[in-house]
Design brief:
about 450 residues; Urease, subunit C, domain 1; 2 domains; 14 helices; about 35% helix; globular
Length: about 450
């Protein structure tokens, strides 16, 4: 149904404006009129600031069920690699029904935190042991069903995961559920579910260690259009393995041998040289940063100043979903830079609001990475929107130029009041419209899993 919103304060591409009247039809913004007056029937967003909602460019929703279960130190030093072994064990128990319930709950949390869309980096394809389901796209359909039930925009990224490690090591243990050679991957994408009017189908070669240059070329032939995402340079050990095998560091290899452009999103890229950082920035690819997960797994710190100075685009993802909070992801990104450099306001330029710099950068990069026409309040874009409570105790003292700084760095809980995804109003007064049902299914699923693990 057509909608009309009236906001006392709103963020447009040219900056903050007052008294904005916004019309939406068929999920898209059809009219943007600042400095006007409300009309009868307008949805009045009193005491709220209207801003574009962000896109979550990297998620493995099933890992939301592991949150809090991997924080006990083992007998040997813990790292990403020890965490990964625990994750593989966890996979042995997940059914399609449980994956759908977990994904739906994670998607609700994303919406309530201010994300209107998500790119699901989906590699949990098969049954334990690697046997396909009768419907090879069973798990993809579960993810799509979960997204459809909660109203979040979905860019589905089926993952090509052929090998267990560099040099074409065989798959083992939990990896068997991920396994796809290029023919099976093509069959899986051919059976991809309907993603709705604002859905997008892309592809994700998992990483250089899980595929080969030959198969990357084949994948590009199978998927000649749409977003392409890949894990790259997350861990020092990964970089060393790829360099020993291919003779180049992973980001250098992708830049030189594969060729990166605006279709690509490199997830993490925390282990790059200065040259790689600058060359990635000018390639047109997006750096997919997941600051909370990168901190939780001890991945390292992205070289933000060099990358942004070279004009690089970035977006944010929740990755392992250890915590789902848009403002916290933004804050963690800036604070990691401050701790490394022992400085303040590292990722902004002189005179600029750091919160606004971070948020508008994440809007643009996230939309590009998802292949989604969003990220700004403008005519023709999907109506991915959120409101912030200007009457909140932490935001009320701030003027409009400080709103994003207050939300991101003061971190008030409950500041996000409403969220629209492609015009669907899915969050109202801080709560998803179907949270009770979805949370009940989540709790039941987790009780069943806890009895098995």
């Amino acid at each position: 149904m057509p909608q009309t919103l009236f906001a006392p304060v709103a963020l447009l591409p040219e900056g903050w404006v007052r008294d904005l009247r916004l019309e939406i039809d068929e999920g898209r913004i059809t009219s943007v009129t600042p400095n006007t007056s409300p009309r009868p029937g307008d949805n009045l967003l009193a005491e709220r600031a209207l801003i574009p909602a962000a896109a979550n460019l990297h998620s493995h929703t099933f890992q939301r069920a592991m949150a809090g279960m991997t924080e006990r130190r083992g007998p040997s030093p813990d790292s990403f690699w020890t965490w990964r072994r625990l994750m593989y064990k966890f996979l042995d128990h997940l059914t399609p029904e449980q994956v759908e319930a977990i994904a739906a709950f994670a998607f609700v949390e994303m919406l309530e935190s201010g994300f209107a869309a998500v790119a699901e980096f989906h590699y949990l394809h098969h049954q334990p042991g690697g046997h396909p389901y009768d419907n090879i796209a069973e798990m993809s359909q579960r993810i799509a069903a979960a997204a459809g039930s909660v109203g979040i925009g979905l860019t589905l990224l089926p993952v090509l995961y052929t090998y267990g490690g560099a040099r074409e090591a065989p798959l083992s243990d939990g990896q068997l559920r991920f396994g796809c050679d290029i023919d099976r991957f093509a069959a899986l994408t051919e059976c991809a579910p309907d993603l709705g009017p604002d859905g997008v189908l892309g592809a994700a070669p998992h990483s250089l260690r899980a595929t080969t240059p030959r198969d990357l070329g084949a994948l590009l032939a199978v998927r000649p259009s749409g977003p392409l995402h890949i894990h790259a340079a997350e861990q020092e050990e990964e970089v060393a393995q790829i360099e020993a095998w291919l003779g180049r560091r992973p980001v250098d290899f992708l830049l030189s041998e594969i060729g990166l452009d605006a279709r690509w999103c490199l997830i993490h890229a925390t282990q790059m040289t200065e040259t790689e950082t600058r060359e990635l920035a000018v390639s047109g690819a997006v750096a997919g940063l997941c600051p909370i997960t990168e901190a939780n797994l001890g991945d390292g710190i992205f070289n933000g100043p060099t990358y942004l100075a070279a004009g690089g685009g970035f977006g944010l993802g929740t990755d392992s979903n250890i915590q789902i909070n848009l403002a916290t992801e933004l804050r963690q990104l800036e604070y990691s830079q401050r701790l490394r450099d022992r400085a303040r306001n590292v990722l902004s330029v002189p005179g600029a609001s750091t919160g606004t710099t971070l948020y508008t950068g994440a809007l643009a990069g996230g939309a590009r990475a998802l292949g989604r026409d969003s990220g700004a309040i403008r005519v023709g874009a999907w109506a991915d929107l959120l409101t912030l409570d200007r009457d909140h105790a932490s935001l009320a003292p701030l003027d409009q130029l400080q709103i994003l700084d207050g939300w991101i760095f003061a971190g008030p809980r409950g500041a996000v009041r409403d969220v629209w995804s492609a015009g669907r109003r899915v969050v109202s007064d801080g709560r998803h419209f179907d949270r009770d049902r979805i949370e009940t299914a989540w709790r039941r699923t987790m009780a069943d899993l806890r009895a098995l693990i």
